[in-house]
Amino acid sequence: MDLLDLMKSRFSVLEYENIPVEQEKVDKIIKAALAAPTACNNQP
Fold it and tell me: pTM here?
């Protein structure tokens, strides 16, 4: 799947399940967020 297909198939989640998320997944999301570019290189 390329980026355009992914963008076309995206959707909004309107309801969430109350299940725990593994710490490994949380850590991976945080690392991705820290590596993402920011406006004017602001790094909050």
Answer: 0.51
